[in-house]
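Entry type: protein chain
Record version: 2
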Amino acid sequence: MNQNFRIRRASRDDAIEVARIHIVATRAAYRDIYTLEYLNGLSIEDRAYRWVEKDRGHLAIGDPFGVFVAFDDDVMIGFADVGPTNKNDVAELYAIYLDPEHIGKGAGKALLKVCADYASSNGFKAMIATVLSRNSLARAFYERRGARAATETETLIETGGTKEKVISYLWDNLRQVE
């Protein structure tokens, strides 16, 4: 399905809706990976605060971080977050989350393209995204969108009340992000 979505730059006023989507999507994507205790403990208020926290939250910082939100009609259905890494010419896709009911309808693709364009317009040449190794849906999405798995980056981290492997994906050329 190829729908048209309205995408715009997010503001501090979007923090509650971004947090809601973040939690709903996390619970759906990681229900068989994260602990139930962790997933049940997620709080919209806490997550919203993290998005606007002074000097840390990407909605509060603004440039060079770009948070974008996608709408279907007037309903926010997803968001993505992109910004700098410790490498001057490489951006990082920190997050891309969709309301589970909207997966596979084109909003993720549209958000990824906006993030790649934003990174490119801010002087970045490439972009990385780190994903849980067991998150096969996200990994397949990145691969379909032209990223390659950097297998040498796979490491074990503590997340979601458990230990999981993560792996980075790389888009070598932002102009080729589909």
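Comment: The chain has a mean pLDDT of 94.
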